[in-house]
Specification:
- With 154 residues, the chain is an alpha/beta fold.
- 46% of the residues lie in helices and 12% in strands.
- The chain is built from five helices and three strands, in the order E-H-E-H-E-H-H-H.
- The protein has a three-stranded parallel beta sheet with strand order 1-2-3.
- Helix 1 packs across helix 2.
- The longest helix has 25 residues.
- It is globular.
Length: 154
C-alpha cells in the first residue's frame, strides 16, 4: 500500500510509524534545555510516541545537542565551552535516569544515543554538500525561512 507523500511545505500527523525499526531524532536547543527540551518534557514526548505512534517496540532515539550553534558570542570560548559542557552533562544524565526509571516502557535501553552537533560533521560523508543544498532551499523558500525563524526564537 502506498501512502501519499506530503508536498513542499505540506505537513501532516501520522497515525502509526509503519516501520518496525527506526530512530527518532530529537535536536536540542541549548537555550531550551530547561524548559521546552527539559528531560521531563522529552520523556513525555517519548511516551506520546511510544503509546500512540510506534507500532513495535523497536524504535530508539538519537538526542542531538546543538553545542556549536551558540559559539557566536561575546563570551570567551573557554567560558562557553564550560557552560555548555555542564548543561549537556546535566541534561543527558537527567534524561538517562528518567529513561532508566521508565525502563518497562522504554525496554531497549541501548537504543538511546546522545551526541553533539559537532559530532555530526564527523559522521557524515558529505556534510558540507548537503548543508549547502539546504541553505539554497532556505534562500528560495520564504515559508521555510519563517519556520526556521520561529523555531530559533527563545
Amino acid at each position: 500500500m502506498k501512502t501519499k507523500l506530503p508536498g513542499k511545505n505540506e505537513f501532516f500527523d501520522i497515525n502509526k510509524l509503519p516501520a518496525e525499526e527506526g530512530i527518532l531524532l530529537f535536536p536540542f536547543s541549548m537555550s531550551k534545555l530547561s524548559n521546552g527540551h527539559s528531560p521531563t518534557q522529552v520523556i513525555k514526548d517519548l511516551q506520546f510516541f511510544s503509546e500512540k505512534k510506534i507500532a513495535f517496540p523497536k524504535v530508539g532515539a538519537n538526542f542531538i545537542y546543538a553545542d556549536f550553534l551558540y559559539l557566536f558570542s561575546n563570551e570567551k570560548a573557554s567560558t562557553l565551552k564550560k557552560k555548555y559542557t555542564e548543561m549537556i552533562w546535566s541534561h543527558s544524565n537527567a534524561l538517562k535516569n528518567l529513561i532508566h526509571k521508565n525502563r518497562k516502557l522504554f525496554q531497549i535501553q541501548h537504543a538511546f544515543s546522545f551526541m553533539t552537533w559537532s559530532q555530526l560533521y564527523l559522521l557524515s560523508q558529505d556534510f558540507q554538500r548537503r548543508f549547502d543544498s539546504l541553505k539554497k532551499i532556505y534562500k528560495e523558500d520564504k515559508l521555510f525561512q519563517k519556520y526556521i525563524k520561529e523555531d530559533a526564537q527563545v
